[in-house]
Amino acid sequence: MLKVIKYLTRQSYLLLLLAGFLTLVFLVSLRPPVIVQALASALSDSYYPWNPRSYPEELVFVEVENTSVQKFGRWPWSRSLIAEGLARLHQAEVIGVDIAFAEPTQPEDDQALAEVLASLPSIGGSFLNGPQARHLDEAAYGRVLDSSLMQVSDAQLIESQELELPISPILEAYPVLSALNIKSDADQRFRHYPLAFWVEDAAFPNLGVQMWRLGRLEDLVIEGQRTYLGDQQLPVDSLNRVKLNYYAKSDYQRLTFAEMMDDDWDPESLAGKWVILGISEAGITDLRSTPLGQLAGPLVHLTFVANLMDHSVLQDLYGKALLAVLLAAGLFLLLLLQLHKTWLRFLGYGLLLLGIYTLGLQLYLQANLWLEIFYPLAFVLMGIIGGELWLFLINKAKADQLRSAFGSYVAPALVEKIVEQGRELKLGGQRQQLTLLFSDLRNFTPTTEALETEELVSHLNRYFDAMITALQQYQGTLDKLMGDAVMGLFNAPLQDKDHAYHACLAAAAMQYALEDFNANYPEGDVHRLAMGIGVNTGEGVVGNIGGQKRFNYTAIGDVVNVAARLESATKEVNNEWKLALFKGEAKPCASVDILIGEATWEAVKDRLPCHFVGVLNLKGKSESLPAWVLDWRSLDKNWLEEQIQS
């Protein structure tokens, strides 16, 4: 539990950021602006092509299309011709007429049509707010009221005070009337089907609802936001509209008016069918823009009835259901943001986005549930951008911290490598192979006594600057400065496979740097300095070592002690070496300024001039150890500088 609390504390800013995005997206989903509605709907429209269903065979669209117009002439046709065609539909169970017949023609033709309609189970169509709309008179209102829903209370419906009804004889002939209107969404596409409209104080149903009432004898009941069709509760929006489930396949049962008028056409083929008569001829009909393209208006009504028949009416997921999806997406996103590797995070982002779309598609296909994936996708994209920005700032802060921590120890180029590999560094104590370099000034006491404090400090600073520069040029890390001594570390914090060799090069470069330093002063001047260096290779422990409030990046172990003891031995060995030379003994080099241990010698013996000086009794060591002198003077200075570049 404590670990969870610590984790949440560390992630508090990220959690607040994601929570802010989630809240914003959720609030927008409750009252989306028009442009958001359009974007959300357009994105989810891609579900429809996956719909495996087809229009039920019970539904037939009798259409006035191009071949019919070619056969019978331009629309509008004689109503006696339409009456003759309608009379052939007497075997149909329900006939919805998606034609208003709002203008009078020849009286005998109008009467012929009225007589046929009165003999059929037909439903008349009328337009709300049509181009020739008029207020309802008492007779018209009576007909509307007879066709209206009787069980409606506290309902929110689209309102209209005007209605364009069929002309008088046809109006009275229809057994029942309906509306023919469909209201588009924000992007002018038709996705929702209004169940009914307020016409004055009457709840006037749409064509599809009336067909169901007449064909199934099930009434539509609206009680506020609860809407029932028989025993089935319909998922509706705030205006009592149903979301249409369009069919990807356009293989609806169709019968052209011209085919129906053929002498050999059999009316029995429509026995028990539900028929919608309408116009699909381009230039005549009012085409509707849908998620699957342009459809004739009658097919939108047909789609609603088909959804009722195959129980595929869509249920929108919003409110608490959408919030649950957002929370789940946020949890996955939070987990992905914990991944260290950028490519792995972005692979996860892609899979998460794909998973959200797949979830929405499966909910649609398997459960008729409609998830507007725009909102979870928008939340995840905002979270990715915000999360990556947060990670960038965190990594930048860590990089600055690493630069600050190691800037005093290692060369700038090496600091950048540490920053690049910062996540892979193990800054806790760990055991590994190391090479240690210790340097210390010889006979420094006279200098300290001769110089004033300020001058002494300035003199040492110039000296240390030269030594640290030489150390860092060969991938060395400055461990610490101890008085006038320098402790250098190789193969940490970054790996260096040739650390013993580089430590020896650094030691030689430090001696050359001291030689250049002394060149500013004449022989015998107290400013001139002498230095001994000890180099040793072996296993040690390196890392942040210290207490909770104070620690230092350093190395400990016998390898460190031996390197320090080798440096201490340089003074005594050098004196013995020079005494031997004074006596006329042959020595391979003039002085002993750098002593290296056996493991170091093994690593460099074939590449650097090293000479055995003997087995030394080092202070604090119970056993004698062999040591070698590194003849730094036989290494060309220019060659040393070339090794830096390589």
UniProtKB/TrEMBL annotation:
SMART domains: CHASE2, CYCc
InterPro entries on file: A/G_cyclase, Adenylyl/Guanylyl_Cyclase_3/4, CHASE2, Nucleotide_cyclase
Any one GO BP annotation for this protein: intracellular signal transduction
Domain Guanylate cyclase: 435-567
CDD domains in the cross-refs: CHD
Keyword Transcription regulation among record annotations: no
SUPFAM superfamilies in UniProt: Nucleotide cyclase
Pfam families from the UniProt entry: CHASE2, Guanylate_cyc
Keywords, comma-separated and alphabetical: Membrane, Transmembrane, Transmembrane helix
MF-aspect GO terms: adenylate cyclase activity
Membrane-traversing stretches: 317-339, 346-367, 373-394
PANTHER family given in the database record: ADENYLATE CYCLASE, TERMINAL-DIFFERENTIATION SPECIFIC, ADENYLATE CYCLASE, TERMINAL-DIFFERENTIATION SPECIFIC-RELATED
UniProt-recorded name of the protein: Adenylate cyclase
Organism name: Marinospirillum celere
Upper taxonomic lineage: Bacteria, Pseudomonadati, Pseudomonadota, Gammaproteobacteria, Oceanospirillales
